[in-house]
Amino acid sequence: MTVSVLVVDDSPTMRGLITAALRRDPEIEVLGSACDPLEAREAIKRLNPDVITLDVEMPNMNGLEFLEKIMRLRPMPVVMVSTLTQAGAEVTLAALELGAVDAVGKPGAGVTAMEAFADLATKVKVAARSRVRAGGGATARPAPTSATYRAAADHVLAIGASTGGVEALLGIISAFPADCPATVVTQHMPATFTPSFAARLDRASAATVREATDGAPLARGCVYIAPGGEAHLEVAGVTPRCRLVRSDTVSGHRPSVDVLFRSVAALRRPMTGVILTGMGRDGAQGLLAMRQAGAGTLGQDEASCVVYGMPKAAFELGAVERQLPLSRLPAAILDLCAEPA
Protein backbone atom coordinates (compact mmCIF):
# COMPACT_ATOMS: atom_id res chain seq x y z
CA MET A 1 0.00 0.00 0.00
CA THR A 2 1.38 3.39 -1.01
CA VAL A 3 1.00 6.22 1.52
CA SER A 4 0.31 9.65 0.00
CA VAL A 5 1.72 12.72 1.75
CA LEU A 6 1.35 16.50 1.61
CA VAL A 7 4.35 18.47 2.93
CA VAL A 8 3.50 21.78 4.65
CA ASP A 9 6.36 24.15 5.54
CA ASP A 10 7.05 27.81 4.81
CA SER A 11 10.71 27.17 3.93
CA PRO A 12 11.36 26.01 0.33
CA THR A 13 14.60 24.40 1.50
CA MET A 14 12.84 22.44 4.25
CA ARG A 15 10.05 21.36 1.91
CA GLY A 16 12.71 20.04 -0.45
CA LEU A 17 14.57 18.16 2.31
CA ILE A 18 11.40 16.58 3.70
CA THR A 19 10.21 15.61 0.22
CA ALA A 20 13.59 14.05 -0.62
CA ALA A 21 13.64 12.07 2.63
CA LEU A 22 10.14 10.70 2.01
CA ARG A 23 10.72 9.87 -1.65
CA ARG A 24 13.59 7.57 -0.70
CA ASP A 25 10.91 5.16 0.53
CA PRO A 26 9.16 3.40 -2.40
CA GLU A 27 6.00 2.98 -0.29
CA ILE A 28 5.50 6.74 0.01
CA GLU A 29 4.21 9.14 -2.65
CA VAL A 30 4.62 12.87 -2.04
CA LEU A 31 1.59 14.42 -3.76
CA GLY A 32 2.77 17.99 -3.35
CA SER A 33 3.67 20.71 -0.88
CA ALA A 34 2.28 23.91 0.59
CA CYS A 35 3.96 26.98 2.04
CA ASP A 36 1.28 27.96 4.55
CA PRO A 37 -2.03 26.73 6.01
CA LEU A 38 -4.16 28.60 3.47
CA GLU A 39 -2.40 26.89 0.58
CA ALA A 40 -2.41 23.61 2.52
CA ARG A 41 -6.18 23.76 3.03
CA GLU A 42 -6.77 23.94 -0.73
CA ALA A 43 -4.19 21.21 -1.40
CA ILE A 44 -5.86 18.87 1.12
CA LYS A 45 -9.21 19.35 -0.62
CA ARG A 46 -7.66 18.80 -4.06
CA LEU A 47 -5.20 15.99 -3.33
CA ASN A 48 -6.81 14.14 -0.38
CA PRO A 49 -3.49 12.91 1.13
CA ASP A 50 -3.29 10.06 3.63
CA VAL A 51 -0.90 12.04 5.88
CA ILE A 52 0.42 15.58 6.13
CA THR A 53 3.71 16.75 7.61
CA LEU A 54 3.22 20.09 9.32
CA ASP A 55 5.59 22.85 10.37
CA VAL A 56 4.79 24.93 13.48
CA GLU A 57 5.93 28.46 12.58
CA MET A 58 4.31 29.62 9.35
CA PRO A 59 2.78 32.85 7.97
CA ASN A 60 -0.99 33.54 7.94
CA MET A 61 -1.76 30.90 10.58
CA ASN A 62 0.59 28.96 12.85
CA GLY A 63 0.77 25.18 12.76
CA LEU A 64 -1.09 24.69 16.05
CA GLU A 65 -4.06 26.77 14.93
CA PHE A 66 -4.16 24.89 11.64
CA LEU A 67 -3.86 21.52 13.40
CA GLU A 68 -6.77 22.39 15.69
CA LYS A 69 -8.91 23.20 12.64
CA ILE A 70 -7.87 19.96 10.92
CA MET A 71 -8.75 17.84 13.95
CA ARG A 72 -12.09 19.60 14.39
CA LEU A 73 -13.20 19.80 10.76
CA ARG A 74 -11.37 17.01 8.90
CA PRO A 75 -9.47 14.66 11.24
CA MET A 76 -6.48 13.09 9.50
CA PRO A 77 -3.00 11.82 10.45
CA VAL A 78 -0.46 14.60 11.02
CA VAL A 79 3.27 14.33 11.72
CA MET A 80 4.77 17.52 13.14
CA VAL A 81 8.19 18.77 11.99
CA SER A 82 9.64 20.97 14.73
CA THR A 83 12.86 22.63 15.84
CA LEU A 84 14.54 20.70 18.66
CA THR A 85 14.58 23.63 21.06
CA GLN A 86 12.74 24.04 24.36
CA ALA A 87 10.19 26.30 22.67
CA GLY A 88 9.87 23.86 19.79
CA ALA A 89 9.41 20.96 22.21
CA GLU A 90 6.64 22.72 24.12
CA VAL A 91 4.75 23.57 20.94
CA THR A 92 5.19 20.04 19.61
CA LEU A 93 3.85 18.55 22.83
CA ALA A 94 0.82 20.82 22.52
CA ALA A 95 0.37 19.52 18.95
CA LEU A 96 0.54 15.91 20.14
CA GLU A 97 -2.13 16.71 22.73
CA LEU A 98 -4.30 18.18 19.98
CA GLY A 99 -4.11 14.93 18.03
CA ALA A 100 -0.92 14.93 15.93
CA VAL A 101 0.28 11.34 15.68
CA ASP A 102 4.02 11.92 16.00
CA ALA A 103 6.83 14.43 15.54
CA VAL A 104 10.35 14.70 14.18
CA GLY A 105 13.00 17.35 14.75
CA LYS A 106 14.39 19.57 12.04
CA PRO A 107 18.09 19.54 11.17
CA GLY A 108 20.07 21.77 13.50
CA ALA A 109 23.56 22.42 14.77
CA GLY A 110 25.62 19.31 14.07
CA VAL A 111 22.61 17.37 12.78
CA THR A 112 22.23 16.71 9.05
CA ALA A 113 18.93 16.33 7.23
CA MET A 114 19.76 12.65 6.67
CA GLU A 115 20.11 12.15 10.43
CA ALA A 116 17.15 14.32 11.43
CA PHE A 117 14.75 12.64 9.01
CA ALA A 118 16.11 9.08 9.31
CA ASP A 119 12.83 7.75 10.73
CA LEU A 120 10.45 10.24 9.12
CA ALA A 121 9.23 7.77 6.49
CA THR A 122 8.55 5.13 9.14
CA LYS A 123 6.60 7.62 11.26
CA VAL A 124 4.56 8.72 8.25
CA LYS A 125 3.65 5.11 7.42
CA VAL A 126 2.68 4.43 11.03
CA ALA A 127 0.60 7.62 11.04
CA ALA A 128 -1.26 6.40 7.96
CA ARG A 129 -2.36 3.31 9.91
CA SER A 130 -3.18 5.16 13.12
CA ARG A 131 -6.55 5.99 14.62
CA VAL A 132 -7.13 9.73 14.58
CA ARG A 133 -9.93 11.06 16.75
CA ALA A 134 -11.74 14.33 16.12
CA GLY A 135 -10.52 17.04 18.46
CA GLY A 136 -7.75 14.96 20.00
CA GLY A 137 -7.32 15.11 23.74
CA ALA A 138 -7.73 12.34 26.28
CA THR A 139 -10.75 12.28 28.57
CA ALA A 140 -10.46 10.08 31.62
CA ARG A 141 -13.20 8.76 33.86
CA PRO A 142 -13.04 10.60 37.20
CA ALA A 143 -10.57 8.86 39.53
CA PRO A 144 -10.47 8.98 43.33
CA THR A 145 -9.51 12.33 44.86
CA SER A 146 -6.84 12.92 47.46
CA ALA A 147 -9.55 13.07 50.12
CA THR A 148 -10.73 9.55 49.37
CA TYR A 149 -7.59 7.78 48.13
CA ARG A 150 -4.33 6.56 49.59
CA ALA A 151 -1.78 4.56 47.62
CA ALA A 152 0.03 1.68 49.30
CA ALA A 153 3.31 3.02 50.67
CA ASP A 154 5.48 0.33 49.08
CA HIS A 155 3.68 -0.03 45.74
CA VAL A 156 5.52 0.75 42.48
CA LEU A 157 3.64 1.59 39.29
CA ALA A 158 5.47 1.31 35.94
CA ILE A 159 4.00 2.66 32.68
CA GLY A 160 5.33 2.34 29.13
CA ALA A 161 4.18 4.14 25.98
CA SER A 162 5.26 5.25 22.51
CA THR A 163 3.30 6.71 19.55
CA GLY A 164 0.17 8.36 20.93
CA GLY A 165 1.56 8.20 24.45
CA VAL A 166 1.64 11.95 25.08
CA GLU A 167 -2.13 12.13 24.87
CA ALA A 168 -2.62 8.85 26.78
CA LEU A 169 -0.25 9.77 29.61
CA LEU A 170 -1.82 13.19 29.96
CA GLY A 171 -5.21 11.52 30.33
CA ILE A 172 -3.91 9.16 33.01
CA ILE A 173 -1.50 11.29 35.03
CA SER A 174 -3.83 14.31 35.09
CA ALA A 175 -6.40 12.08 36.82
CA PHE A 176 -3.98 11.03 39.60
CA PRO A 177 -4.54 12.43 43.12
CA ALA A 178 -1.69 13.97 45.11
CA ASP A 179 -1.25 10.68 46.98
CA CYS A 180 -0.74 8.56 43.87
CA PRO A 181 1.55 5.51 43.87
CA ALA A 182 5.26 5.99 43.20
CA THR A 183 5.23 5.92 39.40
CA VAL A 184 7.97 5.44 36.79
CA VAL A 185 7.29 6.11 33.11
CA THR A 186 9.17 5.38 29.90
CA GLN A 187 7.78 7.23 26.88
CA HIS A 188 9.71 7.12 23.60
CA MET A 189 10.62 10.73 22.73
CA PRO A 190 13.67 12.88 21.95
CA ALA A 191 15.88 14.08 24.81
CA THR A 192 14.92 17.72 24.33
CA PHE A 193 11.24 16.88 24.79
CA THR A 194 11.16 15.08 28.15
CA PRO A 195 11.83 18.09 30.45
CA SER A 196 8.96 19.97 28.82
CA PHE A 197 6.77 16.87 28.91
CA ALA A 198 7.40 16.32 32.62
CA ALA A 199 6.64 19.99 33.32
CA ARG A 200 3.42 19.78 31.28
CA LEU A 201 2.26 16.71 33.23
CA ASP A 202 3.22 18.35 36.52
CA ARG A 203 1.01 21.35 35.73
CA ALA A 204 -1.89 19.08 34.79
CA SER A 205 -1.73 16.74 37.79
CA ALA A 206 -2.18 16.92 41.56
CA ALA A 207 0.83 14.60 41.76
CA THR A 208 4.43 15.82 41.48
CA VAL A 209 5.88 14.97 38.06
CA ARG A 210 9.57 15.35 37.23
CA GLU A 211 12.18 14.03 34.84
CA ALA A 212 13.97 11.11 36.50
CA THR A 213 17.50 11.68 37.79
CA ASP A 214 20.05 9.05 38.73
CA GLY A 215 19.67 8.04 42.36
CA ALA A 216 16.32 9.77 42.97
CA PRO A 217 14.36 7.80 45.62
CA LEU A 218 10.87 6.70 44.62
CA ALA A 219 8.21 8.39 46.71
CA ARG A 220 4.46 8.14 46.93
CA GLY A 221 2.83 11.11 45.22
CA CYS A 222 5.63 11.40 42.63
CA VAL A 223 5.87 10.44 38.95
CA TYR A 224 9.30 10.04 37.30
CA ILE A 225 9.64 10.37 33.50
CA ALA A 226 12.59 8.62 31.79
CA PRO A 227 14.90 11.17 30.11
CA GLY A 228 14.76 10.79 26.35
CA GLY A 229 17.47 9.41 24.17
CA GLU A 230 20.62 8.87 26.20
CA ALA A 231 19.94 6.30 28.95
CA HIS A 232 17.55 3.61 30.12
CA LEU A 233 15.51 4.18 33.28
CA GLU A 234 15.66 1.34 35.82
CA VAL A 235 14.45 1.00 39.39
CA ALA A 236 16.71 -0.78 41.87
CA GLY A 237 17.50 -1.14 45.57
CA VAL A 238 15.87 -2.30 48.79
CA THR A 239 14.60 1.27 49.05
CA PRO A 240 13.88 1.72 45.33
CA ARG A 241 15.67 4.49 43.48
CA CYS A 242 15.83 5.58 39.88
CA ARG A 243 18.91 4.45 38.02
CA LEU A 244 19.93 5.83 34.63
CA VAL A 245 21.94 3.30 32.64
CA ARG A 246 23.86 4.39 29.55
CA SER A 247 23.93 1.31 27.35
CA ASP A 248 22.87 0.11 23.90
CA THR A 249 19.30 0.28 22.63
CA VAL A 250 16.96 -2.51 23.75
CA SER A 251 13.99 -3.55 21.63
CA GLY A 252 15.15 -0.78 19.28
CA HIS A 253 14.84 1.97 21.88
CA ARG A 254 16.70 3.98 24.49
CA PRO A 255 15.05 4.42 26.92
CA SER A 256 13.32 1.06 26.60
CA VAL A 257 10.07 0.04 28.26
CA ASP A 258 11.36 -3.54 28.48
CA VAL A 259 14.35 -2.37 30.56
CA LEU A 260 12.12 -0.45 32.97
CA PHE A 261 9.60 -3.26 33.37
CA ARG A 262 12.26 -5.93 33.94
CA SER A 263 13.91 -3.84 36.63
CA VAL A 264 10.59 -3.37 38.43
CA ALA A 265 9.86 -7.10 38.12
CA ALA A 266 13.04 -7.77 40.13
CA LEU A 267 11.82 -5.70 43.09
CA ARG A 268 10.45 -7.58 46.07
CA ARG A 269 7.37 -5.45 46.60
CA PRO A 270 3.81 -4.93 45.29
CA MET A 271 3.78 -3.57 41.74
CA THR A 272 1.57 -2.76 38.78
CA GLY A 273 2.53 -2.55 35.11
CA VAL A 274 0.65 -0.67 32.38
CA ILE A 275 1.38 -0.69 28.64
CA LEU A 276 -0.11 2.00 26.43
CA THR A 277 -0.38 2.90 22.76
CA GLY A 278 2.74 2.55 20.63
CA MET A 279 4.36 0.94 17.62
CA GLY A 280 6.36 -2.29 17.91
CA ARG A 281 6.93 -4.73 20.76
CA ASP A 282 8.91 -2.78 23.36
CA GLY A 283 7.58 -3.61 26.81
CA ALA A 284 5.86 -6.91 26.00
CA GLN A 285 8.57 -9.18 27.43
CA GLY A 286 9.16 -6.88 30.38
CA LEU A 287 5.46 -6.75 31.26
CA LEU A 288 5.34 -10.54 31.10
CA ALA A 289 8.23 -10.65 33.58
CA MET A 290 6.26 -8.32 35.87
CA ARG A 291 3.15 -10.49 35.67
CA GLN A 292 5.15 -13.62 36.36
CA ALA A 293 6.60 -11.86 39.41
CA GLY A 294 3.10 -11.21 40.75
CA ALA A 295 2.28 -7.76 39.38
CA GLY A 296 -1.14 -6.65 38.30
CA THR A 297 -0.94 -5.74 34.61
CA LEU A 298 -3.15 -3.60 32.37
CA GLY A 299 -3.08 -2.77 28.67
CA GLN A 300 -4.78 -0.05 26.64
CA ASP A 301 -7.42 -1.54 24.36
CA GLU A 302 -7.29 -1.43 20.57
CA ALA A 303 -10.15 1.03 20.07
CA SER A 304 -8.57 3.77 22.20
CA CYS A 305 -4.97 3.32 20.98
CA VAL A 306 -3.49 5.60 18.34
CA VAL A 307 -1.31 2.63 17.37
CA TYR A 308 -2.24 -0.81 18.75
CA GLY A 309 1.24 -2.31 18.56
CA MET A 310 2.88 -2.55 21.99
CA PRO A 311 -0.34 -3.41 23.88
CA LYS A 312 -1.23 -6.01 21.26
CA ALA A 313 2.18 -7.68 21.48
CA ALA A 314 1.95 -7.77 25.28
CA PHE A 315 -1.62 -9.12 25.22
CA GLU A 316 -0.77 -11.87 22.72
CA LEU A 317 2.20 -12.85 24.89
CA GLY A 318 -0.05 -13.29 27.93
CA ALA A 319 1.48 -10.32 29.75
CA VAL A 320 -1.76 -8.32 30.06
CA GLU A 321 -4.38 -9.36 32.61
CA ARG A 322 -6.99 -6.84 31.47
CA GLN A 323 -7.35 -4.56 28.45
CA LEU A 324 -9.29 -1.36 29.06
CA PRO A 325 -10.14 1.82 27.14
CA LEU A 326 -8.04 4.84 28.05
CA SER A 327 -10.98 6.47 29.83
CA ARG A 328 -11.14 3.58 32.34
CA LEU A 329 -7.44 3.14 32.97
CA PRO A 330 -6.83 5.83 35.66
CA ALA A 331 -9.42 4.40 38.07
CA ALA A 332 -8.33 0.81 37.35
CA ILE A 333 -4.66 1.67 37.95
CA LEU A 334 -5.39 3.42 41.23
CA ASP A 335 -7.54 0.49 42.41
CA LEU A 336 -4.62 -1.89 41.89
CA CYS A 337 -2.23 0.41 43.77
CA ALA A 338 -4.49 1.39 46.68
CA GLU A 339 -3.65 0.83 50.33
CA PRO A 340 -5.61 -2.22 51.54
CA ALA A 341 -8.84 -1.32 53.32
Automatic annotation (TrEMBL):
The active site is at 162, 188, 282. HAMAP family: CheB_chemtxs (MF_00099). The lineage of its organism: Bacteria, Pseudomonadati, Pseudomonadota, Alphaproteobacteria, Caulobacterales. Residues 150-334 form the CheB-type methylesterase domain. Keywords: Chemotaxis, Cytoplasm, Hydrolase, Phosphoprotein. GO terms for molecular function: phosphorelay response regulator activity; protein-glutamate methylesterase activity; protein-glutamine glutaminase activity. Belongs to the CheB family. It is an enzyme of class 3 (hydrolase). PROSITE patterns: CHEB (PS50122), RESPONSE_REGULATORY (PS50110). InterPro entries: CheB-like, CheB_C, CheY-like_superfamily, Sig_transdc_resp-reg_Me-estase, Sig_transdc_resp-reg_receiver. Its main location: cytoplasm. GO terms for biological process: chemotaxis. One of its GO terms (cellular component) is cytoplasm. Contains a C-terminal catalytic domain, and an N-terminal region which modulates catalytic activity. SUPFAM superfamilies: CheY-like, Methylesterase CheB, C-terminal domain. It is found in: Cytoplasm. Residues 4-121 form the Response regulatory domain. The keyword Cytoplasm applies. This is Protein-glutamate methylesterase/protein-glutamine glutaminase. The modification 4-aspartylphosphate is found at residue 55. The gene is cheB.
